[in-house]
# Entry
Amino acid sequence: MQDRDQILSKLNAFEVETPSWGYADTGTRFGKFFQDAAAITIEDKLQDAGTVHRFTGCCPSVAVHVLWDFAEGTDPGQVGKLAEAQGVRIGSINPNLFQDQTYKFGSVCSPNPDARAAADEHVRRCIEIGKATGSGLLSLWFADGTNYPGQDDLISRKRLMQDALRRWHSWMPDDMTMLVEYKPFEPAFYHTDIADWGMSYAFSKFAGPQAKVLVDTGHHFQGVNIEHIVSFLLDEGMLGGFHFNDRKYADDDLTTGSIDPYAVFRIFLAIRLAEERHGLDASGIAYMVDQSHNLKPKIEAMIQTVTTAQEMFLKAQMVDLDGLAAAQASMNIVDAENYLREGFEEDVRPLLREWRSFKGMAAEPLLAFRESGYEAKVGAERKARRGDAAPASSYA
Ligand code: PSV
Ligand code: MN
# Structure
């Protein structure tokens, strides 16, 4: 068993990146319900992300979506400084290769050369933003796909994708990692050009050594064993990071662990087993949140998410790996499973509270955030700033 100090030092190193888009007004295609305190500008988003970090102590970086956060003419170095002033830094750079009209039939896989050229230009800019802000991550997700059988040629599209990723990889500085995300459907409903982890893996291998797979937990069909994918990718040295969220049906972007916390625990256990039992390197995994809180207050939802991630991470540390190995070796399935259950059922909240107090933070971040009055304060200020203007939204 690990001792307390070992566990606490792991907790010290456990960091979760929050997304700028999680602080802005979002909704579904049926409508949006606006919140006074929703962030309007990149400054607001960084301020909110800094607030989450201040109350949780484990969110020092912010993912940015270039189209939504870096209006043409924005000085990225300046944005980096704004982040710093809020006690955070710019994390993954997310190009937007799906919203512009030119991407109607896809971006890099589009039969339209103008769309492919636009994607190239945008990604070039994203890499420059990454360099200027000191971000080491270029995080790629494509809406590319088709809606009907016969709409386009699948092999031609595959080749366009692999060539683009290799080309972009060659533009990156040596200390930048390319994360390649997959998703089985939506917005494309017949085929998606990077539909699953196997395709992400093959494309990443082809692109170059700095490309790795990004696992968004909501991007799987029901029943897919995510911890198996995680274990497989770790053993291949190809797991780049996570987009955490939860779902009941599809890519619902619900709060991590709200539907199935045991699944989150199993992912963290898979990572621990890879490291401790197999000596694999998991130190470079980027833990990121990718959620849109349409109904919950955004900062509260983010604090809840991060706290849950920490709890599941700690529960995974509570599993007796020696006992588990012995049960597995003797093919005692009942005991083996119970080792997992015991870890999961351990109440890790007292340890987490202690860690927070030791770090000079309030023991209960959600409570402390509520008591701070932050939401009412920024809500009033942002409401006044908005005036009669339509609320800003990431998803236009
Ligand atoms: C797509 O569903 C996705 O998961 C990608 O990561 C995007 O960058 C993010 O959501 C925001 O649209
Ligand atoms: Mn995602």
